Amino acid sequence: MKNECEHTLKQAALAHEEGRLADAEKAYLEILNQKPDSGSVLNALGTVFLDQSQPDKAKTVFEKAAGLNPPHLSACYNLGRLKQIEGDDQGAINLYRAIVKQQPRFGLAWNNMGVAYREIGEPEEAISCFRRAVAFAPDMAEAWNNLGVAQDAFHMIENAARSYRKAIEIKPDYASAHFNLGVSLQKRERFEDAEDHYNKVLEIKPGDEAANFMLQSLGTSATPDAAPAQHVRRIFDQCAGTFEKILVTGLEYRTPELLFNLTRPRLKQNLAVLDLGCGTGLGSQFYRPYAKLLIGVDVSPRMLQKASEKNIYDDLMVFDILQDWAFSQPFDLIYSSDVFVYFGNLDPIIRSASSALVPGGIIAFSVEKLEENRTGYQLFPSGRYAHSHRYVRNCLKNHGFAPVAETDAAIRKQSGDEVPGLLIVAEKG
Protein backbone atom coordinates (compact mmCIF):
# COMPACT_ATOMS: atom_id res chain seq x y z
CA MET A 1 0.00 0.00 0.00
CA LYS A 2 2.84 2.36 0.89
CA ASN A 3 4.61 1.77 -2.41
CA GLU A 4 1.33 2.25 -4.27
CA CYS A 5 0.73 5.63 -2.58
CA GLU A 6 4.28 6.75 -3.32
CA HIS A 7 3.83 5.78 -6.98
CA THR A 8 0.53 7.69 -7.20
CA LEU A 9 2.13 10.71 -5.51
CA LYS A 10 4.93 10.76 -8.09
CA GLN A 11 2.35 10.52 -10.88
CA ALA A 12 0.35 13.38 -9.36
CA ALA A 13 3.42 15.59 -9.02
CA LEU A 14 4.49 14.87 -12.61
CA ALA A 15 0.99 15.59 -13.94
CA HIS A 16 0.94 18.89 -12.04
CA GLU A 17 4.36 19.84 -13.33
CA GLU A 18 3.30 19.09 -16.92
CA GLY A 19 0.07 21.05 -16.57
CA ARG A 20 -2.25 18.05 -16.63
CA LEU A 21 -4.26 19.50 -13.78
CA ALA A 22 -7.28 17.17 -13.98
CA ASP A 23 -4.98 14.14 -13.77
CA ALA A 24 -3.08 15.68 -10.85
CA GLU A 25 -6.32 16.43 -8.99
CA LYS A 26 -7.59 12.89 -9.51
CA ALA A 27 -4.34 11.37 -8.25
CA TYR A 28 -4.13 13.58 -5.14
CA LEU A 29 -7.76 12.78 -4.27
CA GLU A 30 -6.98 9.10 -4.64
CA ILE A 31 -4.16 9.42 -2.10
CA LEU A 32 -6.36 11.40 0.29
CA ASN A 33 -8.89 8.58 0.26
CA GLN A 34 -6.18 6.52 1.93
CA LYS A 35 -4.48 9.34 3.92
CA PRO A 36 -7.09 12.06 4.56
CA ASP A 37 -4.85 13.92 7.01
CA SER A 38 -1.77 14.19 4.81
CA GLY A 39 -0.87 17.89 5.04
CA SER A 40 1.55 17.80 2.12
CA VAL A 41 -1.02 16.18 -0.20
CA LEU A 42 -3.78 18.56 0.91
CA ASN A 43 -1.45 21.48 0.22
CA ALA A 44 -0.50 20.07 -3.19
CA LEU A 45 -4.18 19.60 -4.07
CA GLY A 46 -4.86 23.19 -3.01
CA THR A 47 -2.20 24.48 -5.40
CA VAL A 48 -3.81 22.43 -8.21
CA PHE A 49 -7.13 24.12 -7.44
CA LEU A 50 -5.40 27.51 -7.55
CA ASP A 51 -3.91 26.67 -10.94
CA GLN A 52 -7.43 25.72 -12.06
CA SER A 53 -8.69 29.16 -10.90
CA GLN A 54 -10.80 27.56 -8.16
CA PRO A 55 -9.76 29.54 -5.06
CA ASP A 56 -12.79 28.44 -3.00
CA LYS A 57 -11.84 24.78 -3.37
CA ALA A 58 -8.21 25.63 -2.68
CA LYS A 59 -9.18 27.49 0.48
CA THR A 60 -11.13 24.49 1.79
CA VAL A 61 -8.21 22.08 1.52
CA PHE A 62 -5.66 24.65 2.78
CA GLU A 63 -7.88 25.19 5.83
CA LYS A 64 -7.96 21.47 6.49
CA ALA A 65 -4.17 21.21 6.24
CA ALA A 66 -3.71 24.32 8.40
CA GLY A 67 -6.02 22.80 11.02
CA LEU A 68 -3.94 19.66 11.46
CA ASN A 69 -1.89 19.09 14.59
CA PRO A 70 0.77 20.18 13.89
CA PRO A 71 -0.45 22.48 11.08
CA HIS A 72 1.11 22.15 7.65
CA LEU A 73 3.12 25.37 7.34
CA SER A 74 3.10 25.64 3.53
CA ALA A 75 -0.68 25.32 3.59
CA CYS A 76 -0.83 28.04 6.27
CA TYR A 77 1.27 30.26 4.02
CA ASN A 78 -0.92 29.61 0.97
CA LEU A 79 -4.07 30.17 3.02
CA GLY A 80 -2.61 33.45 4.28
CA ARG A 81 -2.05 34.62 0.72
CA LEU A 82 -5.65 33.74 -0.18
CA LYS A 83 -6.95 35.65 2.83
CA GLN A 84 -4.98 38.70 1.74
CA ILE A 85 -6.49 38.51 -1.73
CA GLU A 86 -9.94 38.33 -0.11
CA GLY A 87 -9.16 41.37 2.06
CA ASP A 88 -9.02 39.41 5.32
CA ASP A 89 -5.68 40.87 6.37
CA GLN A 90 -6.12 40.15 10.06
CA GLY A 91 -6.85 36.51 9.28
CA ALA A 92 -3.68 36.40 7.19
CA ILE A 93 -1.66 37.96 10.00
CA ASN A 94 -2.84 35.28 12.42
CA LEU A 95 -1.65 32.57 10.04
CA TYR A 96 1.72 34.20 9.39
CA ARG A 97 2.22 34.65 13.14
CA ALA A 98 1.65 30.93 13.60
CA ILE A 99 4.20 30.21 10.87
CA VAL A 100 7.00 32.43 12.20
CA LYS A 101 6.44 31.09 15.70
CA GLN A 102 7.59 27.72 14.37
CA GLN A 103 9.94 29.01 11.66
CA PRO A 104 11.22 32.44 12.79
CA ARG A 105 13.48 32.79 9.75
CA PHE A 106 10.66 32.40 7.17
CA GLY A 107 11.32 35.64 5.24
CA LEU A 108 8.37 35.34 2.86
CA ALA A 109 5.95 35.07 5.78
CA TRP A 110 7.44 38.17 7.42
CA ASN A 111 7.18 40.08 4.14
CA ASN A 112 3.55 39.14 3.55
CA MET A 113 2.69 39.89 7.16
CA GLY A 114 4.20 43.35 6.69
CA VAL A 115 1.95 43.96 3.70
CA ALA A 116 -1.07 42.81 5.72
CA TYR A 117 -0.21 45.12 8.62
CA ARG A 118 0.16 48.00 6.15
CA GLU A 119 -3.32 47.28 4.82
CA ILE A 120 -4.96 47.38 8.25
CA GLY A 121 -3.29 50.68 9.10
CA GLU A 122 -0.48 49.53 11.39
CA PRO A 123 2.62 51.07 9.76
CA GLU A 124 4.88 50.50 12.78
CA GLU A 125 4.15 46.76 12.75
CA ALA A 126 4.57 46.71 8.96
CA ILE A 127 8.03 48.23 9.04
CA SER A 128 9.05 45.83 11.84
CA CYS A 129 7.96 42.85 9.71
CA PHE A 130 9.76 44.11 6.61
CA ARG A 131 12.95 44.55 8.64
CA ARG A 132 12.72 40.94 9.76
CA ALA A 133 11.99 39.85 6.19
CA VAL A 134 15.20 41.40 4.84
CA ALA A 135 17.17 40.13 7.83
CA PHE A 136 16.08 36.52 7.25
CA ALA A 137 15.83 36.70 3.45
CA PRO A 138 18.43 39.31 2.43
CA ASP A 139 18.14 38.38 -1.26
CA MET A 140 14.40 39.07 -1.46
CA ALA A 141 14.15 42.19 -3.63
CA GLU A 142 10.42 42.56 -2.98
CA ALA A 143 10.97 42.78 0.78
CA TRP A 144 13.61 45.50 0.37
CA ASN A 145 11.26 47.46 -1.88
CA ASN A 146 8.42 47.07 0.63
CA LEU A 147 10.74 48.20 3.42
CA GLY A 148 11.59 51.28 1.39
CA VAL A 149 7.90 52.13 0.91
CA ALA A 150 7.32 51.73 4.66
CA GLN A 151 10.31 53.92 5.46
CA ASP A 152 9.06 56.56 3.03
CA ALA A 153 5.75 56.63 4.90
CA PHE A 154 7.70 57.60 8.04
CA HIS A 155 9.72 60.20 6.08
CA MET A 156 12.89 58.13 6.53
CA ILE A 157 13.92 59.20 3.05
CA GLU A 158 17.63 58.32 3.22
CA ASN A 159 16.86 54.86 4.63
CA ALA A 160 14.16 54.32 2.01
CA ALA A 161 16.59 55.16 -0.78
CA ARG A 162 19.09 52.63 0.58
CA SER A 163 16.38 49.96 0.66
CA TYR A 164 15.34 50.68 -2.93
CA ARG A 165 18.99 50.53 -4.03
CA LYS A 166 19.38 47.17 -2.32
CA ALA A 167 16.31 45.86 -4.16
CA ILE A 168 17.80 47.07 -7.46
CA GLU A 169 21.17 45.53 -6.61
CA ILE A 170 19.43 42.16 -6.21
CA LYS A 171 17.12 42.61 -9.19
CA PRO A 172 18.50 45.22 -11.62
CA ASP A 173 15.35 45.28 -13.76
CA TYR A 174 12.97 45.83 -10.82
CA ALA A 175 10.80 48.58 -12.30
CA SER A 176 8.87 49.34 -9.11
CA ALA A 177 12.07 49.86 -7.10
CA HIS A 178 13.53 52.13 -9.79
CA PHE A 179 10.33 54.18 -9.81
CA ASN A 180 10.21 54.43 -6.01
CA LEU A 181 13.87 55.43 -5.88
CA GLY A 182 13.20 58.07 -8.51
CA VAL A 183 10.42 59.55 -6.38
CA SER A 184 12.65 59.42 -3.29
CA LEU A 185 15.47 61.23 -5.11
CA GLN A 186 13.02 63.76 -6.48
CA LYS A 187 11.86 64.59 -2.93
CA ARG A 188 15.48 65.48 -2.15
CA GLU A 189 15.69 67.61 -5.31
CA ARG A 190 18.21 65.27 -6.92
CA PHE A 191 16.36 65.68 -10.18
CA GLU A 192 18.98 64.34 -12.61
CA ASP A 193 19.39 61.15 -10.60
CA ALA A 194 15.60 60.77 -10.39
CA GLU A 195 15.37 61.21 -14.15
CA ASP A 196 17.86 58.36 -14.66
CA HIS A 197 15.65 55.96 -12.69
CA TYR A 198 12.45 57.00 -14.46
CA ASN A 199 14.20 56.41 -17.77
CA LYS A 200 15.28 52.98 -16.49
CA VAL A 201 11.62 52.19 -15.76
CA LEU A 202 10.80 53.13 -19.36
CA GLU A 203 13.54 50.81 -20.61
CA ILE A 204 12.01 47.97 -18.61
CA LYS A 205 8.37 48.93 -19.29
CA PRO A 206 8.18 51.09 -22.43
CA GLY A 207 5.30 53.54 -22.31
CA ASP A 208 4.88 53.36 -18.51
CA GLU A 209 2.50 56.26 -17.82
CA ALA A 210 3.60 56.91 -14.25
CA ALA A 211 7.30 57.17 -15.17
CA ASN A 212 6.46 59.44 -18.11
CA PHE A 213 4.38 61.66 -15.85
CA MET A 214 7.10 61.99 -13.22
CA LEU A 215 9.57 62.94 -15.96
CA GLN A 216 7.10 65.58 -17.10
CA SER A 217 6.89 66.87 -13.52
CA LEU A 218 10.63 67.54 -13.80
CA GLY A 219 9.98 69.75 -16.81
CA THR A 220 11.49 67.38 -19.36
CA SER A 221 8.60 67.93 -21.77
CA ALA A 222 5.27 69.73 -22.14
CA THR A 223 2.99 69.76 -19.11
CA PRO A 224 0.23 67.14 -19.43
CA ASP A 225 -3.40 67.97 -18.68
CA ALA A 226 -3.58 65.51 -15.78
CA ALA A 227 -1.79 62.77 -13.90
CA PRO A 228 -2.51 59.33 -15.40
CA ALA A 229 -5.31 57.51 -13.61
CA GLN A 230 -3.01 54.46 -13.32
CA HIS A 231 -0.45 56.55 -11.44
CA VAL A 232 -2.98 58.05 -9.00
CA ARG A 233 -4.57 54.62 -8.43
CA ARG A 234 -1.16 53.13 -7.64
CA ILE A 235 -0.35 55.86 -5.12
CA PHE A 236 -3.56 55.48 -3.18
CA ASP A 237 -3.93 51.72 -3.46
CA GLN A 238 -0.48 51.47 -1.91
CA CYS A 239 -1.16 53.83 1.00
CA ALA A 240 -4.85 53.08 1.67
CA GLY A 241 -4.21 51.17 4.88
CA THR A 242 -2.03 53.85 6.47
CA PHE A 243 -3.61 56.89 4.78
CA GLU A 244 -5.62 58.31 7.67
CA LYS A 245 -3.11 57.52 10.39
CA ILE A 246 -0.22 59.19 8.59
CA LEU A 247 -2.07 62.03 6.86
CA VAL A 248 -4.38 63.13 9.66
CA THR A 249 -2.22 62.36 12.69
CA GLY A 250 1.19 62.89 11.20
CA LEU A 251 0.56 65.74 8.74
CA GLU A 252 -2.36 67.47 10.49
CA TYR A 253 -4.52 67.18 7.37
CA ARG A 254 -7.77 69.13 7.86
CA THR A 255 -8.87 70.08 4.34
CA PRO A 256 -12.16 68.08 4.42
CA GLU A 257 -13.22 69.79 7.64
CA LEU A 258 -12.13 73.25 6.45
CA LEU A 259 -13.98 72.82 3.16
CA PHE A 260 -17.11 71.68 4.99
CA ASN A 261 -16.99 74.72 7.28
CA LEU A 262 -16.87 76.96 4.20
CA THR A 263 -19.72 75.05 2.55
CA ARG A 264 -22.01 74.62 5.57
CA PRO A 265 -23.86 77.98 5.30
CA ARG A 266 -25.13 76.88 1.85
CA LEU A 267 -26.37 73.45 2.95
CA LYS A 268 -29.97 72.33 3.40
CA GLN A 269 -31.55 69.04 4.38
CA ASN A 270 -32.25 66.06 2.08
CA LEU A 271 -29.51 66.79 -0.43
CA ALA A 272 -28.22 64.43 -3.11
CA VAL A 273 -24.46 64.61 -2.54
CA LEU A 274 -21.47 63.37 -4.57
CA ASP A 275 -18.10 62.96 -2.82
CA LEU A 276 -15.75 63.28 -5.80
CA GLY A 277 -12.49 61.42 -5.08
CA CYS A 278 -13.75 60.32 -1.69
CA GLY A 279 -10.65 58.38 -0.63
CA THR A 280 -11.25 56.75 2.75
CA GLY A 281 -14.24 59.02 3.36
CA LEU A 282 -12.68 61.66 5.59
CA GLY A 283 -15.33 64.23 4.66
CA SER A 284 -18.35 61.94 4.72
CA GLN A 285 -19.14 62.37 8.41
CA PHE A 286 -19.66 66.11 7.93
CA TYR A 287 -22.09 65.89 4.99
CA ARG A 288 -24.06 62.79 5.98
CA PRO A 289 -26.50 64.68 8.26
CA TYR A 290 -27.54 66.84 5.27
CA ALA A 291 -27.75 64.04 2.70
CA LYS A 292 -30.69 61.92 1.66
CA LEU A 293 -28.22 60.32 -0.79
CA LEU A 294 -24.44 60.24 -0.39
CA ILE A 295 -22.38 58.65 -3.15
CA GLY A 296 -18.59 58.32 -3.04
CA VAL A 297 -16.41 57.75 -6.09
CA ASP A 298 -12.66 57.23 -6.33
CA VAL A 299 -10.10 55.84 -8.75
CA SER A 300 -8.58 53.63 -6.02
CA PRO A 301 -10.44 50.40 -5.16
CA ARG A 302 -8.48 50.01 -1.93
CA MET A 303 -9.42 53.48 -0.73
CA LEU A 304 -13.06 52.66 -1.44
CA GLN A 305 -12.70 49.48 0.60
CA LYS A 306 -11.57 51.58 3.56
CA ALA A 307 -14.41 54.06 2.98
CA SER A 308 -16.95 51.22 3.00
CA GLU A 309 -15.83 50.26 6.51
CA LYS A 310 -17.29 53.55 7.79
CA ASN A 311 -20.81 52.49 6.72
CA ILE A 312 -21.68 56.09 5.88
CA TYR A 313 -22.16 56.10 2.10
CA ASP A 314 -25.25 54.91 0.25
CA ASP A 315 -23.05 53.77 -2.63
CA LEU A 316 -19.36 53.64 -3.53
CA MET A 317 -17.89 53.07 -6.97
CA VAL A 318 -14.56 53.01 -8.78
CA PHE A 319 -14.54 56.07 -11.00
CA ASP A 320 -12.12 57.97 -13.24
CA ILE A 321 -13.07 61.64 -13.01
CA LEU A 322 -12.17 62.21 -16.66
CA GLN A 323 -14.52 59.50 -17.91
CA ASP A 324 -18.10 60.26 -18.94
CA TRP A 325 -20.29 61.00 -15.93
CA ALA A 326 -23.43 58.89 -16.13
CA PHE A 327 -25.13 59.07 -12.75
CA SER A 328 -28.77 58.07 -12.41
CA GLN A 329 -29.83 61.41 -10.94
CA PRO A 330 -28.50 64.97 -10.65
CA PHE A 331 -26.84 66.18 -7.45
CA ASP A 332 -27.46 69.16 -5.22
CA LEU A 333 -23.87 69.22 -4.00
CA ILE A 334 -20.51 67.96 -5.29
CA TYR A 335 -17.51 68.30 -3.00
CA SER A 336 -13.89 67.30 -3.58
CA SER A 337 -10.99 67.65 -1.13
CA ASP A 338 -7.36 67.57 -2.31
CA VAL A 339 -8.31 65.83 -5.56
CA PHE A 340 -7.90 68.55 -8.19
CA VAL A 341 -4.16 68.65 -7.41
CA TYR A 342 -3.83 65.66 -9.76
CA PHE A 343 -5.38 67.58 -12.67
CA GLY A 344 -3.98 70.57 -14.48
CA ASN A 345 -6.75 71.34 -16.94
CA LEU A 346 -9.85 71.59 -14.76
CA ASP A 347 -12.18 72.45 -17.64
CA PRO A 348 -13.48 68.89 -18.32
CA ILE A 349 -14.09 68.29 -14.61
CA ILE A 350 -15.99 71.55 -14.07
CA ARG A 351 -17.98 70.90 -17.26
CA SER A 352 -18.95 67.42 -16.06
CA ALA A 353 -19.82 68.73 -12.62
CA SER A 354 -22.07 71.38 -14.15
CA SER A 355 -23.94 68.76 -16.15
CA ALA A 356 -24.36 66.61 -13.03
CA LEU A 357 -25.74 69.38 -10.80
CA VAL A 358 -29.28 70.72 -10.52
CA PRO A 359 -29.77 74.46 -11.22
CA GLY A 360 -28.59 76.24 -8.10
CA GLY A 361 -26.44 73.24 -7.19
CA ILE A 362 -23.16 73.70 -5.35
CA ILE A 363 -19.61 72.60 -6.10
CA ALA A 364 -17.00 72.83 -3.33
CA PHE A 365 -13.34 71.95 -3.82
CA SER A 366 -9.74 72.68 -2.93
CA VAL A 367 -6.72 73.42 -5.10
CA GLU A 368 -3.07 74.03 -4.41
CA LYS A 369 -2.61 77.75 -4.95
CA LEU A 370 -0.23 79.12 -7.56
CA GLU A 371 1.49 82.41 -6.84
CA GLU A 372 -0.66 85.40 -7.74
CA ASN A 373 1.73 86.56 -10.46
CA ARG A 374 1.33 83.26 -12.31
CA THR A 375 -1.49 82.33 -14.65
CA GLY A 376 -3.08 79.01 -15.53
CA TYR A 377 -1.68 75.96 -13.78
CA GLN A 378 1.69 74.37 -13.17
CA LEU A 379 2.92 70.85 -12.51
CA PHE A 380 5.50 70.74 -9.71
CA PRO A 381 8.16 68.11 -8.94
CA SER A 382 5.86 66.89 -6.17
CA GLY A 383 3.77 65.37 -8.98
CA ARG A 384 0.89 67.72 -8.09
CA TYR A 385 -0.60 70.69 -9.87
CA ALA A 386 -1.16 74.18 -8.53
CA HIS A 387 -3.70 76.59 -10.02
CA SER A 388 -3.94 80.34 -10.09
CA HIS A 389 -6.99 82.00 -8.57
CA ARG A 390 -7.75 83.68 -11.89
CA TYR A 391 -7.63 80.37 -13.78
CA VAL A 392 -10.06 78.69 -11.37
CA ARG A 393 -12.49 81.63 -11.49
CA ASN A 394 -12.45 81.71 -15.29
CA CYS A 395 -13.00 77.97 -15.49
CA LEU A 396 -16.01 78.23 -13.18
CA LYS A 397 -17.40 81.20 -15.10
CA ASN A 398 -17.09 79.37 -18.44
CA HIS A 399 -19.43 76.65 -17.14
CA GLY A 400 -22.03 78.82 -15.48
CA PHE A 401 -20.72 78.88 -11.91
CA ALA A 402 -20.45 81.88 -9.62
CA PRO A 403 -18.18 81.69 -6.52
CA VAL A 404 -20.13 82.23 -3.29
CA ALA A 405 -17.34 81.58 -0.77
CA GLU A 406 -13.55 81.46 -0.96
CA THR A 407 -10.67 81.31 1.48
CA ASP A 408 -6.96 80.66 1.54
CA ALA A 409 -5.91 77.64 3.60
CA ALA A 410 -2.96 75.35 4.22
CA ILE A 411 -4.26 72.20 2.56
CA ARG A 412 -1.57 69.85 3.88
CA LYS A 413 2.06 69.67 4.95
CA GLN A 414 4.92 68.67 2.68
CA SER A 415 8.41 68.07 4.08
CA GLY A 416 7.25 69.84 7.23
CA ASP A 417 6.09 72.99 5.41
CA GLU A 418 2.50 74.09 4.92
CA VAL A 419 1.27 73.95 1.31
CA PRO A 420 -0.78 77.03 0.41
CA GLY A 421 -4.18 76.25 -1.00
CA LEU A 422 -7.48 77.76 -1.99
CA LEU A 423 -10.93 76.53 -0.95
CA ILE A 424 -13.83 77.50 -3.22
CA VAL A 425 -17.60 77.09 -3.06
CA ALA A 426 -19.47 77.99 -6.27
CA GLU A 427 -23.12 77.90 -7.32
CA LYS A 428 -24.45 76.78 -10.67
CA GLY A 429 -26.52 79.56 -12.23
TrEMBL record:
Source taxon at top rank: Bacteria
Keyword Repeat: yes
InterPro entries, alphabetized: CellSynth/LPSAsmb/PSIAsmb, SAM-dependent_MTases_sf, TPR-like_helical_dom_sf, TPR_rpt
Pfam families: Methyltransf_23, TPR_1, TPR_16, TPR_8
TPR repeats: 39-72, 107-140, 141-174, 175-208
SMART domains for the chain: TPR (SM00028)
Keywords associated with the record: Repeat, TPR repeat
Keyword Transferase: no
PANTHER family, sorted: LIPOPOLYSACCHARIDE ASSEMBLY PROTEIN B, TPR REPEAT-CONTAINING PROTEIN PA4667
UniProt protein name: Uncharacterized protein
